[in-house]
Amino acid sequence: LETRQAASVEVxxxxxxxxxxxxxxxxxxxxxxxxxxxxxxxxxxxxxxYRHLPEVYVLKKEIYSD
Length: 66
Known about the structure:
- This protein is mostly beta strands and about 70 residues long.
- About 5% of the residues lie in helices and about 25% in strands.
- It has two domains: about 1-35, no CATH class; about 35-65, no CATH class.
- It is elongated, with a radius of gyration of 15 Å.
């Protein structure tokens, strides 16, 4: 977008996991800062399950770790 001469380009996120970043990102608009946990619901899934849930939940570790 910047190469198309946009007046400004900002980052907006619903769920922000700053501890997982590999590069520095300036998030201007942030819904929630969350810990490094596996989330499901509201479109987020695990093995194509749980995405239909109407809210966001933390998935128990025993479900996704082997």
